[in-house]
């Protein structure tokens, strides 16, 4: 090299062609008209040609897929040829579809550069295109994933061109706004029409228009779909410029309907909770931020912790905790912020005075509208106060007699409290949690089939329920209970997680219902015909609506009732009474239940009905009327009157059975006792004193401690022995205070002979309509002999008490052997050893029939075989078991285990069987005793017009009057015609006096008996005035002929003896000890005593000269002087 500068070699066209032909990238050249002037082999192959001969001179738009071109093929060609003019390179990054010869179109990305010739000044364009099929496929997948993400998150994307009004929406945006993506594209007017006017200020465009300086915004508004569906959405938007510098608004829109409703519910719940907590003085409520600074509290927090509100606000919540627990408190706040889940903990807190106390602390997160935790609220309960309330609740629960249960549905574990287990006779200490299957096993099979669908329906729906069924008790019996329950927590799908409820024993209610059903069978047709009706009235009492069952009750069609006043169908006095009540309820806008009143039918008949009503109020709380139900209770009233008549018959029967009856009026202080009651206490009925008058305080303030029984209450209390006095008086007071029956055993000392007797007293407290006790009605009977027998029986049973106190149900587990024909005993419990009088070692491993041969005749073996074969549990009814060792009555419950072993659970029912037999014997004895009651029991009715009839007569009518009960009822005059004419007038007058004054009737009279001749009768009865003005006597008549004749003979004997003494005074003298008594000088008392004694000891002697006898520990002598 010579060092001179060298010029670079100019590349030849051939070299450039060779270079381009060797490239794998498709390259072509276009002239200024957009026609192909060159294509390298890669471009020819990609466009489906072997060389460039078919394409040279053709326009570039001939290879563009015009159906997919965006913009059009011609416009794209113009953009490429413009490169030759401007000299500016062009890159088209949007996908362009080329359509090769006889092949499917494919996507490409194009880059164009100017091609100019310095020699010819021709201009053209060099175009390279790369296959974008892979990139396009990836883009489609990304778009699909984006659409899926939008649907999952309910989030749509959109772009708005404010200048042109063009809207570009994603598919989810169309769905959220309620437009069809395949239909015509909505414009701004169509969109804004679906946003309520009140919410339009929250739209991004509105916010940007109101503040042009804003670059981003956020808002929440509603979208109302054409069908009426309303969605809440949250919109986030930004103001941007696209690649062409055009102003656009781009944003997202998200469905927040559920969150919004949840926040509304949460806010409503928070407000309700706050209102509740403001009324609960024992719950402290404190709100803090996430740093623990107090921002709000209620009054209870001030009182509980001893800080004023001013001292609390802004202070650190950690001051209420021990410093050693501050780290735990911070961790709790951090966990709350992470999980947004509340928690509850029992901890020790510190009051302002330094006092420390245990508390239950429940913490819940406070969320903003986006669901973010911004603070917390804590509810604190002082457990010392809560314990006192729990004790009161437990006492109330025990008094009310109900049990409580809890069921964790997720873990299938149910917990019963002690009251629930004791209700069924189980020992709570020996019971654990129950599974759902175990609970079903406790329910009576018939009831389980009935209640299970209803229970599982409520379980699935999570709604409260009330069902009634029978539980199996520990002794094998069945107990009716009412089960109430409700769901406290649910899972996300709505299924229950945690439930609570109560058990209430309703055994007595069910038994009462059965008894009532029997007694009401006679009136079933009347009740069904009367039915129950629904009514509505306006404030003046006029009917505005009534259903057809009222027609037979009021005797008028519905059309004739509507518009009439309820008082139009009542007697005047009844209308006045009911009008006053209705006016009071209208003034108070209150409801009422079971108002009983009388209505008047067009035919003049009276009917009784019972109505209940509720006030109808408009939205301003003004009374617009009442609505309710009513039903005919005329039959019930008749039944009540019949019951009263039966009660009177019972009173007569109990009198004959020597049961003392008493009634005490709490308002007047008046006590009534029958003669038998006086005899029980050794009191002369003639000297029995009623309650004293002149109470200073109101009757409601009286107490049995100051009320007399007999002459005074203290006199009656003195008859009680000291050991039973306090308990008896307390029981009486408790019965009045609690409105419960009085039933007690007491020991008294009789007033006449001083003997100690044991009485059984039973009484019922009667209340008025308002629930205030007004009187006590009771009976007493002497059970001294019965108690002595019980003491002897108790002494005998006491020897065996130690054994029976530990006796439980026997449990034996058997394994089938000999192909199920027999069983091998593999286990028994200690109760079985006691019940079967055998040891465990004697039966384990042995055959059942060898140990207990009586099981075949008893039927137990066959039952075990059936259960072992079918797996269906069985209950073997009460049956007798007998072998050489034992004889007993047993009940067995048998079931099969999953292992195939069979379990027999049995109880000894020997004592129960014996008690049943003893009860049957007692029932027969009582029936015989009732049949032997003496006297004629009757009901006699007298009408104002003189008509009369015996409406009831027992079988003693024939013995007393010589006529059958049927004859007495059919022809009542016969019982009056047989009365002596001399006694008949006073007899009639006594009935008239009793009817007029309604005083008890008492009369002694003679009759002509068809077989006995003259008979003396004594009658007692109590009158009752009936609604039609007639009088009904409930009475008792018995034969006193023997008593009257004895009294007459006694009087005659006294007269003869007195005459004898008067005529023989000169011939007799009397010696009492050493003192002679002259007859004419004796006092009347001495004469009476001498006559009585003479009648008792002397009458009947034949001409005695000297008589002697004992009298008051002295001797009396009669000496005949001559």
Automatic annotation (TrEMBL):
<dbReference type="GO" id="GO:0004673">
    <property type="term" value="F:protein histidine kinase activity"/>
</dbReference>
<dbReference type="InterPro" id="IPR052162">
    <property type="entry name" value="Sensor_kinase/Photoreceptor"/>
</dbReference>
<dbReference type="InterPro" id="IPR035965">
    <property type="entry name" value="PAS-like_dom_sf"/>
</dbReference>
<dbReference type="InterPro" id="IPR001610">
    <property type="entry name" value="PAC"/>
</dbReference>
<feature type="domain" description="PAS">
    <location>
        <begin position="389"/>
        <end position="462"/>
    </location>
</feature>
<keyword id="KW-0808">Transferase</keyword>
<dbReference type="InterPro" id="IPR013656">
    <property type="entry name" value="PAS_4"/>
</dbReference>
<feature type="domain" description="PAC">
    <location>
        <begin position="343"/>
        <end position="395"/>
    </location>
</feature>
<dbReference type="Pfam" id="PF08447">
    <property type="entry name" value="PAS_3"/>
</dbReference>
<dbReference type="InterPro" id="IPR000014">
    <property type="entry name" value="PAS"/>
</dbReference>
<keyword id="KW-0597">Phosphoprotein</keyword>
<dbReference type="Pfam" id="PF08448">
    <property type="entry name" value="PAS_4"/>
</dbReference>
<dbReference type="InterPro" id="IPR013655">
    <property type="entry name" value="PAS_fold_3"/>
</dbReference>
<feature type="domain" description="PAS">
    <location>
        <begin position="945"/>
        <end position="998"/>
    </location>
</feature>
<feature type="domain" description="PAS">
    <location>
        <begin position="269"/>
        <end position="343"/>
    </location>
</feature>
<feature type="domain" description="PAC">
    <location>
        <begin position="217"/>
        <end position="268"/>
    </location>
</feature>
<feature type="domain" description="PAS">
    <location>
        <begin position="519"/>
        <end position="589"/>
    </location>
</feature>
<feature type="domain" description="PAC">
    <location>
        <begin position="742"/>
        <end position="795"/>
    </location>
</feature>
<feature type="domain" description="PAC">
    <location>
        <begin position="465"/>
        <end position="518"/>
    </location>
</feature>
<keyword id="KW-0418">Kinase</keyword>
<dbReference type="InterPro" id="IPR000700">
    <property type="entry name" value="PAS-assoc_C"/>
</dbReference>
<protein>
    <recommendedName>
        <fullName>histidine kinase</fullName>
        <ecNumber>2.7.13.3</ecNumber>
    </recommendedName>
</protein>
<feature type="domain" description="PAC">
    <location>
        <begin position="593"/>
        <end position="645"/>
    </location>
</feature>
<dbReference type="Pfam" id="PF13426">
    <property type="entry name" value="PAS_9"/>
</dbReference>
């Amino acid at each position: 090299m010579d060092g001179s500068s060298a010029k670079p070699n100019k590349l030849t066209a051939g070299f450039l062609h060779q270079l381009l032909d060797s490239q794998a990238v498709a390259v072509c050249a276009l002239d200024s008209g957009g026609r192909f002037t060159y294509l390298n082999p890669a471009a020819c192959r990609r466009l489906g040609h072997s060389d460039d001969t078919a394409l040279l001179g053709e326009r570039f738009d001939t290879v563009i897929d015009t159906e997919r071109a965006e913009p059009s093929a011609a416009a794209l060609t113009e953009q490429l040829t413009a490169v030759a003019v401007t000299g500016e390179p062009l890159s088209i990054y949007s996908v362009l579809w080329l359509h090769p010869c006889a092949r499917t179109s494919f996507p490409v990305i194009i880059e164009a550069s100017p091609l100019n010739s310095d020699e010819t000044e021709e201009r053209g364009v060099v175009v390279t295109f790369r296959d974008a099929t892979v990139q396009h496929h990836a883009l489609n997948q990304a778009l699909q994933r984006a659409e899926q993400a939008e649907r999952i998150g309910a989030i749509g994307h959109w772009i708005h061109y404010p200048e042109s009004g063009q809207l570009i929406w994603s598919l989810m945006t169309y769905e959220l706004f309620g437009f069809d993506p395949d239909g015509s594209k909505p414009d701004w007017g169509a969109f804004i029409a679906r946003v309520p006017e009140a919410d339009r200020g929250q739209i991004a465009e509105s916010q940007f228009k109101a503040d042009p300086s804003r670059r981003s915004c956020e808002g929440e508004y509603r979208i109302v779909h054409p069908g009426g569906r309303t969605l809440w959405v949250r919109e986030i938007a930004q103001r941007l410029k696209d690649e062409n510098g055009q102003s656009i608004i781009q944003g997202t829109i998200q469905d927040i309907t559920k969150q919004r409703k949840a926040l509304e519910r949460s806010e409503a719940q928070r407000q309700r909770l706050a209102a509740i907590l403001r009324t609960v003085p024992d719950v402290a409520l404190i709100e803090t931020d996430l740093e623990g600074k107090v921002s709000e509290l209620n009054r209870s927090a001030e009182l509980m912790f001893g800080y004023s509100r001013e001292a609390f606000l802004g202070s650190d919540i950690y001051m209420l905790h021990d410093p050693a627990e501050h780290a735990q408190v911070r961790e709790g706040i951090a966990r709350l912020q992470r999980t947004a889940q509340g928690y509850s903990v029992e901890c020790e807190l510190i009051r302002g005075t330094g006092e420390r106390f245990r508390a239950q602390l429940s913490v819940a997160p406070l969320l903003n509208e986006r669901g973010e935790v911004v603070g917390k609220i804590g509810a604190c309960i002082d457990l010392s106060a809560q314990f006192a309330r729990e004790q009161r609740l437990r006492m109330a629960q025990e008094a009310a007699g109900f049990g409580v249960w809890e069921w964790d549905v997720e873990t299938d574990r149910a917990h019963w409290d002690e009251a629930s287990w004791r209700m069924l006779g189980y020992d709570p200490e020996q019971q654990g949690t129950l599974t759902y299957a175990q609970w079903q096993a406790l329910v009576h099979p018939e009831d389980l089939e009935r209640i299970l669908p209803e229970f599982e329906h409520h379980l699935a729906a999570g709604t409260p329920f009330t069902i009634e069924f029978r539980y199996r008790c520990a002794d094998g019996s069945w107990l009716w209970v009412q089960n109430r329950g409700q769901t406290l927590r649910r899972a996300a799908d709505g299924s229950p997680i945690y439930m609570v409820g109560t058990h209430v024993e309703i055994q007595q209610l069910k038994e009462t219902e059965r008894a009532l059903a029997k007694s009401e069978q006679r009136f079933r047709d009347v009740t069904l015909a009367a039915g129950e009706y629904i009514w509505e009235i306006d404030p003046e009492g006029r009917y505005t609506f009534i259903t057809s069952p009222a027609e037979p009750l009021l005797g008028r069609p519905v059309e004739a009732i509507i518009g009439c006043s309820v008082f139009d169908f009542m007697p005047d006095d009844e209308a006045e009474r009911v009008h006053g009540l209705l006016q009071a309820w209208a003034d108070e806008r209150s409801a009422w239940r079971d108002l009983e009143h009388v209505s008047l039918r067009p035919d003049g008949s009276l009917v009784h009905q019972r109505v209940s009503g509720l006030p109808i109020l408009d939205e301003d709380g003004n009374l617009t009327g009442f609505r309710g139900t009513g039903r005919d209770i005329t039959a019930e009233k008749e039944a009540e009157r019949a019951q009263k008549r039966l009660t009177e018959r019972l009173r007569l029967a109990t009198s004959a059975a020597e049961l003392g009856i008493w009634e005490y009026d709490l308002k007047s202080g008046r006590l009534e006792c029958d003669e038998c009651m006086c005899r029980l206490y050794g009191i002369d009925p003639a000297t029995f004193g009623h309650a004293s008058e002149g109470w200073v305080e109101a009757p409601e303030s009286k107490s049995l401690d100051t009320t007399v029984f007999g002459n005074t209450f203290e006199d009656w209390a003195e008859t009680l022995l000291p050991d039973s006095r306090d308990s008896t008086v307390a029981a009486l007071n408790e019965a009045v205070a609690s409105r419960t029956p009085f039933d007690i055993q007491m020991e008294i000392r009789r007033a006449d002979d001083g003997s100690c007797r044991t009485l059984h007293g039973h009484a019922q407290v009667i209340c008025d309509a308002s629930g205030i006790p007004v009187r006590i009605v009771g009976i007493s009977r002497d059970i001294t002999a019965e108690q002595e027998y019980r003491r002897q029986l108790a002494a005998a049973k006491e020897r065996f008490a130690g054994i029976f106190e530990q006796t439980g149900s026997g449990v034996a587990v058997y394994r089938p052997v000999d192909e199920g024909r027999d069983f091998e005993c593999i286990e028994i419990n200690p109760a079985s050893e006691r019940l079967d009088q055998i040891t465990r070692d004697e039966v384990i491993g042995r055959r059942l029939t060898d140990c207990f041969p009586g099981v075949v005749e008893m039927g137990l073996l066959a039952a075990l075989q059936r259960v072992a074969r079918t797996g269906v549990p069985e209950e073997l009814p009460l049956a007798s078991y007998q072998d050489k060792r034992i004889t007993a009555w047993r009940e067995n419950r048998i079931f099969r285990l999953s292992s195939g072993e069979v379990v027999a659970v049995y109880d000894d029912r020997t004592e129960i069987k014996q008690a049943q037999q003893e009860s049957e014997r007692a029932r027969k004895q009582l029936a015989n005793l009732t049949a032997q009651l003496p006297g004629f029991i009757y009901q006699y009715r007298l009408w104002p017009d003189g008509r009369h009839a015996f409406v009831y007569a027992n079988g003693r009518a024939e013995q007393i009057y010589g006529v059958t009960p049927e004859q007495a009822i059919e022809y009542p005059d016969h019982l009056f015609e047989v009365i002596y004419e001399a006694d008949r007038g006073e007899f009639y007058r006594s009935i008239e006096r009793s009817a007029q004054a309604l005083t008890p009737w008492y009369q002694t009279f003679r009759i002509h008996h068809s077989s006995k001749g003259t008979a003396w009768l004594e009658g007692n009865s109590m009158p009752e005035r009936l609604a039609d003005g007639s009088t009904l006597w409930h009475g008792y008549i018995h034969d006193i002929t023997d008593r009257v004749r004895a009294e007459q003979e006694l009087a005659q004997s006294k007269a003869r003896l007195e005459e004898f003494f008067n005529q023989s005074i000169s011939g007799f003298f009397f010696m009492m000890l050493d003192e002679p008594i002259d007859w004419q000088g004796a006092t009347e008392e001495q004469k009476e005593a001498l006559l009585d004694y003479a009648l008792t000891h002397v009458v009947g002697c034949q001409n005695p000269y000297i008589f002697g006898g004992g009298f008051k520990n002295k001797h009396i002598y009669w000496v005949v002087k001559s």
